[in-house]
Amino acid sequence: MLPYPQIDPVALDLGLIKIHWYGLMYLVGIGGAWWLASRRLAGFDASWNKEKLSDLVFWVAMGVILGGRLGYVLFYDLAAYIAEPAKMLRIWEGGMSFHGGLLGVMLATWWFGLRNNKSFFQLMDFIAPLVPIGLGAGRIGNFINAELWGKATDLPWAMVFPTDPEQLARHPSQLYQFALEGVALFTILWFYSRKPRPTMAVSGMFALCYGIFRFIVEFVRVPDAQLGYLAGGWLTMGQVLCLPMILGGLGLIAYAYNRQAAQEAAR
């Protein structure tokens, strides 16, 4: 068993203001995505300047934060937030939904594309390889908060989390998700998007790989206590939300390549 590193969730205590590591991880994700996007900008649209890119990053970040919070409220704990609406503002305590954040990003991207003469999937294909930076940083934030831990196990890298009332040795599922959703997903999308791909293919690859990775980790991650297991006691809400991503990702990739083949045949 590995000892859990006791990291104070508060990175900087200024008295009235406390800066939490979880919030800083969002800044790392957004800043890293902006930096990488600026390096890929010329290959996406040489006419865009840094100001245009900053506008895109801003609206996507708003989609992540607002969508992620609203998604958690709606998908995971609606009753608690109806009972105490002020909890919705306490983002530093955790409680963000990736799937809600994704919907927020999609809505922000659609709106930004309308205003800037870009199709939805042109922008989504550009954004998709940037997303794992934020996902990885967010999972490190979950680990520091000692939340979203896994099931009990006797594996040598199991950890006892201070927030666990049972004090059992558990899977560090946050680190599994960091490795898969952050490192592995970034690597796949980075190399896949380096070559020209038909529109929608990169978005489809993101949806497919994220859905598979998240679905797998959910088998060893403890579901939210207020929801538990669904569908006969083995599916989690995370897995239910990932199923349409997997199917949608496959559909997008197939459609993208079939459409490209049809266009080339018609020339």
From TrEMBL:
EC assignment: 2.5.1.145
Amino-acid positions noted as binding a 1,2-diacyl-sn-glycero-3-phospho-(1'-sn-glycerol) in the UniProt annotation, renumbered to this chain: R139
Family: Belongs to the Lgt family.
Pathway(s) per entry: Protein modification; lipoprotein biosynthesis (diacylglyceryl transfer)
Reported function: Catalyzes the transfer of the diacylglyceryl group from phosphatidylglycerol to the sulfhydryl group of the N-terminal cysteine of a prolipoprotein, the first step in the formation of mature lipoproteins.
Entry-linked InterPro entries: Lgt
Pfam family, one: LGT
Topological category with respect to the lipid bilayer: Multi-pass membrane protein
UniProt entry keywords in alphabetical sequence: Cell membrane, Lipoprotein, Membrane, Transferase, Transmembrane, Transmembrane helix
UniProt keyword Metal-binding, yes or no: no
MF term (GO), any: phosphatidylglycerol-prolipoprotein diacylglyceryl transferase activity
Protein name (database record): Phosphatidylglycerol--prolipoprotein diacylglyceryl transferase
Compartment list: Cell membrane
Recorded name of the encoding gene: lgt
Gene Ontology CC terms: plasma membrane
Domain of life: Bacteria
One of the GO biological process terms: lipoprotein biosynthetic process
Segments crossing the lipid bilayer: 19-36, 56-76, 96-114, 126-144, 175-192, 199-217, 237-257
